[in-house]
Design brief:
Blueprint lengths: L2 E4 L3 H10 L1 H29 L8 E4 L28 H13 L5 E3 L12 H11 L4 E6 L6 H7 L5 E8 L6 H12 L8 E8 L27 H4 E4 L4 E3 L12 E2 L5 H5 L2 H10 L18 H29 L1
Parallel strand pairs: 1-6, 2-3, 2-7, 3-4, 4-5, 5-6
Antiparallel strand pairs: 7-8, 8-9
Length: 329
């Protein structure tokens, strides 16, 4: 099927997030830190072993810094938003995509950050251009679905590999418009055979991570986090003003690792501030002021991408060793 529904552990998981929010959040984080620690460190050591920084595995490009939802865990919600309104210039957007093409970028790309992509009326055209220029990239859209309808779904799917609809709610049910999309896709699977559509049923008031101490419902700034983080090594985070920020946890756009008005995408990824950040968090977030209290954990997408890279590297290394052994004979 080209459409799937995921509700994160069903009724049991929903009730845990609703009635035991802090316990649910902390238990999840402890489990994820423990199970992902080894693979994270393996990738970070692989990253530093390369002659030049490997490509980012995920490029997050936010074209407008606004959202239309009320998710209580996010400072981009309409009640907590503090950012000056910013829309990315057309010229800058097209330049970034062209540079990624010249850089032979084949990783993941999403035109999304701490925002709702459908608030940008250029979003379909921007995806069309990205798909044309980056045929080898995995392009995905993440939306809260509030503005989505069947026509918009049909308009975007030719240009994305995956469409993620985060159905934030209080009743564990699809919104009416999301249900209409679900029913339509199921009735017309041939129209959507080249795209993966995922509907995620999510609790609107969920407690997740503290996002470097800025999350409205979890502003943790007391516990120092001594775990490392994958984000500086896997994600390029491009804000609408052209600055490279650390990651999605910079909800207020205060970090500045490079300005794409002044440097190229490739040079920005290897800027001095980026190198300082990576060296600092290599041994733990406590070594970098912005990340010191942040308990954000890398989503499954990053772990899957990291694992793929390491497996490919191991395979190539094994092939080279085999060639050397044959030559020695």
């Amino acid at each position: 099927m080209p459409i799937r529904v995921h509700n994160f552990a069903g009724v049991l998981g929903w009730n845990a997030r609703k009635y035991l929010p802090k316990l649910s959040s902390e238990s999840y984080l402890k489990l994820q830190f423990a199970t992902r620690r080894k693979l994270q460190r393996q990738y970070i050591e692989y990253f530093f072993a390369q002659k030049e920084p490997p490509h980012p595995l995920i490029v997050n490009l936010e074209t407008v810094n606004r959202c239309n939802s009320t998710c209580e865990f996010c400072t981009a919600n309409i009640h907590a938003e503090k950012r000056p309104y910013q829309k990315m210039e057309d010229d800058l957007y097209y330049s970034v995509i062209d540079q990624l093409r010249a850089w032979n970028y084949r990783g993941h790309l999403t035109l999304y950050g701490n925002n709702e992509p459908w608030l940008d009326k250029r979003i379909v055209e921007f995806h069309r251009y990205a798909r044309k220029q980056l045929p080898g990239a995995f392009i995905f859209m993440s939306t809260n679905g509030l503005l989505l309808d069947i026509d918009k779904t049909k308009a975007i799917v030719p240009y994305v590999n995956q469409l993620i609809i985060n159905n934030y709610c209080l009743d564990m049910k699809m919104h009416d418009n999301v249900r209409q999309i679900y029913d339509y896709v199921r009735a017309h699977p041939d129209e959507f055979q080249d795209v993966d559509i995922l509907i995620q049923i999510r609790y609107l008031k969920e407690v997740l991570t503290n996002r470097a101490g800025s999350a409205p419902n979890k502003q943790g700034t007391a516990k120092v986090i001594r775990e490392t983080c994958l984000m500086p090594y896997t994600d390029m985070w491009i804000m609408p003003n052209g600055k490279l920020g650390i990651c999605c946890c910079d909800n207020f756009e205060v970090t500045d690792l490079a300005d794409l008005h002044e440097v190229s995408v490739k040079d920005g990824w290897n800027s001095g501030p980026y190198r300082e950040l990576r060296q600092a968090v290599r041994d733990g977030r406590q070594n970098y002021p912005f990340c010191r209290y942040c308990d954000f954990i890398d989503a499954g997408l990053r772990m899957d991408a990291v694992e793929d890279v390491l497996k490919h590297h191991e395979k190539l290394h094994g092939a080279r060793q085999s060639v050397f052994k044959k030559q020695e004979r």
